[in-house]
Amino acid sequence: MFDFERRYILTPDQPFFSNIRLWRRYIDDILVIWKGNIDQAKAFAQWVNTLDTNLRFTSTISDSEVSFLDLRITLKGGRLHSSVFHKPTDRNSLLLYNSHLPKALRDNLPIGQLLRIRRNCSDTSDFHTQANMLCHKLSERNYPARNIRQAKKRASNIPRESLLIDNIRTPQSRLNCVTTFTPLSNRIKNVVRKFWPILTSAGETLEYPLFAFKRTHNIKDLVVHTRPMTYRHPGNTGPSQCFEAISDKTETALFSAVHLSSGRLFVADRS
């Protein structure tokens, strides 16, 4: 996609270069601010689909409102305003508070989500509306009312301008202790904390390690096992990689796979 943009879009000799005031892409989602009328924008959308047979673009063109990722961007009085975009198929899929995950992660989820809304909403009144909707969803997922109130108050008191500044992370010299999360994880941390002075008594100064946890296996991991499979199509000169889904742990001689882009069915002999 980068090569496509460099060759056809962001070069002065292409026919629509002067119309593109802003071009921003995140993976396969693109936001374009266009200088010109809607007919010209539609012509551009048709033109890009003629450049590469492997790429197909769909477009939403409007002179008042568009959506990009989780943003709804509107034009009012000659100024751009942003808010939170909700897909029509959205449902409350927030993490359940009683999930088997570290308590610190669950306790900090409300403030993380509210700060995202604070950053995305350019109008304060819109922020409060979206924040109330989120607080209701958090309540449905069994988050403590006290945590929700404190998170909303904290997010409301943070200036939005400070959230738009990129955070520059400084290199850390602390040791990283990465383990799989279990009900005994906190006990392990407490044991390390208790006996850490003994470990550093040899004279070497070591900072207390930073603990991080990996997700443990869930039911999906036990039922569905995904792993890469190499296949060779008669018309290809080299192997390619796709993925197979095995619903059980048994080994059989033949495995089938469907190519994600072409939809062709391949059968590989693993005997």
UniProtKB/TrEMBL annotation:
<dbReference type="Pfam" id="PF26215">
    <property type="entry name" value="HTH_animal"/>
</dbReference>
<feature type="domain" description="Helix-turn-helix">
    <location>
        <begin position="94"/>
        <end position="151"/>
    </location>
</feature>
<dbReference type="InterPro" id="IPR058912">
    <property type="entry name" value="HTH_animal"/>
</dbReference>
<protein>
    <recommendedName>
        <fullName>Helix-turn-helix domain-containing protein</fullName>
    </recommendedName>
</protein>
